[in-house]
Amino acid sequence: MDMSTLSYPHALLFDLDGTLLLEKEPAEQCWKKACIPFAHLVDAKALFQALLHADALRKERIKDHPEKQRRERLDPSVARKEQAALALHHLGADVSLTDQLVQEFERHREQRELAPGADETLQKLQQLGIRLALLTNGNATYQRRKLQRFQLGSFFSLILIEEETGSAKPEPSAYSGALTRLQLQPSHVWMVGDNLELDIAAPQRLGLSAIWYDREAQGLPLASLVQPNAIIHALPDVLSLLEASR
Which UniProt keywords apply (predicted)? Predict the structure, then answer.
């Protein structure tokens, strides 16, 4: 980490999921809980294992196909229904349970919470006159529903969602589009996020400074070639970086 490369920014780009909003439980645990109400119809443990297997097959099938990955991000319910239907079929269970199983999964999956200090940090950044933009992949309806639920939208002068802009991280156009709308040079903008490729390496290639949110304080992977300009373990640490960069 080389904080000497950080100059005081005119704007900050924030990632949403995994940065400002945290999942209460991973997807795997949500599927496990979703199986329970159907235990009288199909063995819940076997169904859970079948769902994991179906998910692994799906990921293998799309790993080299960016367009298929994009379709799943923009309409995740379709992929979830395919996964559930395949698992039920594999067990010889009633495939008509697919929609109910997915609805149960999504009920658990929507349980999210604000990252500690998110509200206070965004409010303080606003008070400092730092322009804030949100840059996130995914389905616009889902993402805007989260913003509304947690009352985050008012913090941002610019909200860029993949489905609405047509650009997804780590595509260069996702970041350059934000810079164009902000009318700022890359050297005047920081990106803050939890994903080493999407939020750190990709924006750095365009000249932005990138702050990695390592909320579990696990440190960089041993084989990582990515070097964030700074690493934080809590969102309020952004304020300390700002002060140090003056």
Answer: Hydrolase, Magnesium
pLDDT digits (tens, 9 = 90+) for 52-85: 999 999 999 998 998 999 999 999 999 999 999 9
Q: Name residue, tokens 């400092």.
A: 128
Three-class DSSP category at 70 = helix
Residue 138 is given by DSSP the state: S
In one letter, which amino acid is 12?
L
Phi, psi (degrees; rounded to nearest 5) at 33: -70, -35
Which secondary structure element, helix H or strand E, spans residue 47, and what is its range? helix 44-62
Q: Where are the domains of the chain?
A: 3-23+113-245, 27-109
Q: Give pLDDT, residue 140.
A: 96
Q: What's the number of CA atoms in the CB half-sphere (13 Å) around residue 185? A: 4
For 95-106, the pLDDT digits (tens) are 999 999 999 999
pLDDT in tens, 26-54: 999 999 999 999 999 999 999 999 999 99
CATH 3.40.50.1000 fits 3-23+113-245, yes or no: yes
> Following DSSP, what letter does each residue of 77-126 receive, concatenated?
HHHHHHHHHHHHHHTT--GGGHHHHHHHHHHHHT-EEEPTTHHHHHHHHH
CA distances from 238 to 48, 158, 208 (A): 40, 19, 15
